[in-house]
Structures are given as structure tokens and as C-alpha cells.
Design brief:
It is a single chain. 28% of the residues lie in helices and 35% in strands. It has 5 helices and 9 strands. Strands 5-6-4-3-7-8-9 form a 7-stranded mixed β-sheet, with helices on both faces. The protein starts with a helix and ends with a strand. β1 and β2 form a beta hairpin. It has 176 residues and is an alpha/beta fold.
Amino acid sequence: MTDPELVRLAEHIRDVPDFPKPGILFKDISPLLQDPESLRIACRRMAAPFARERIDRVVGIESRGFIFGVPVALALGTGFALARKLGKLPWDTRRESYQLEYGSAEIEMHSDAVLPGQRVLLVDDVIATGGTAAATARLIRALGGEVVGTSFLVELGFLNGRKALEGLSVEAVLHF
């Protein structure tokens, strides 16, 4: 890696072995969030590939997708919507199920979070297996939106999450 901004970002991601369970090397973005310049670079880099696209809404996936999604939405001049774990939203919702390594989960959005015909950018901190992002993309489509692309801070390439998002533009700032 020779780009000084990418080096800076990578230096602010902490490896935590055996979290959340033995054998997992967790990429902790907390140090990056604590450094204002790194946070600024990360958000700018996440928005940049879509700067020339018409984006009507940015959707961030709970919870770290909220952190990056709002500044990306501001950079792109649009609004922001939440994709949350089941039972966390107070109004009329739509939901989508997806598979986890052991079991299943559901993600939901308010039924008016994305309007029919809106062009949507999906944002999260990390793409691992891609299951949560794929479910959120299906949910956006069910609400009538068009998923223009996805933007992540980190891609864990060895988990092949892009495969779950086949047919979508997948952008990531850092690759591990």
C-alpha cells in the first residue's frame, strides 16, 4: 500500500484476536473513529466513487453503517435512512430475513425510508460474507428503490462477500 491516506487508515484499524469468538481476527475501527483526520478521509473516500451518480438516499446498516452513512449522505447531498435489527424501529416497517453462520436474522426499515424509484447507496463499515448487505439490498428493492451501489470502509476479501452482492457496484476503501 503506497497511498499515504490508505496507510493512515490501515494504521488506525486495530486487530483483536479471538473476538467475538476463538479463531476470529476482529478488525476494530474504534481507533479510526477517534482520529478526526482519519474519519474525515474514510468518509470522503467512501462517498467519492458515487459523487457523479444521482443518489436520492443513503441507507446505513446498524450500527456502524450509521456512523459512516450520515457523512456520506451529506457529502452526496442527500438524506439518510436506517436499516436496523428486528424490533428497533418505532413505526410501520418492512423486513427481510437472511442466514447467519448458525441460524438466521432479520433486518428492517421503515416502510417510507426509501420511496419508489429512489436511487440508493448502501453503506456499512465492513463487508464480510455479504449476507446482511444482500438482505438490506433486497429490502430496498422491496420498498421500490434502486440500489445504485454499496460502499464499505473495509472489505474482508477472504470471506468473498462480493459474491452475495453480485450485480451491484461494491466499493471498499481498505482490503484485508
